[in-house]
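yo, Methyltransferase is done. seq:
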Amino acid sequence: MKKNSNSKLYAGAALASTALAGGAAMADGIDVSSIVTLIGTVATAAGLIGVAVLAMHYGIKAYKWVKGAG
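structure:
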């Protein structure tokens, strides 16, 4: 029976959070343009760092492959 009461508790919490999120999503006057710009800037930097890490990783593998072949 304890399992059943926990599932009812979680279902109630999920329903309440959904209702609150719906109200917050409909709020007017929130300017999110600065956040969107910041996320775009960070995503660009993270992408460049990721490309650099992958280039180093596969560059080392290629170097070892060429060194082993010769």
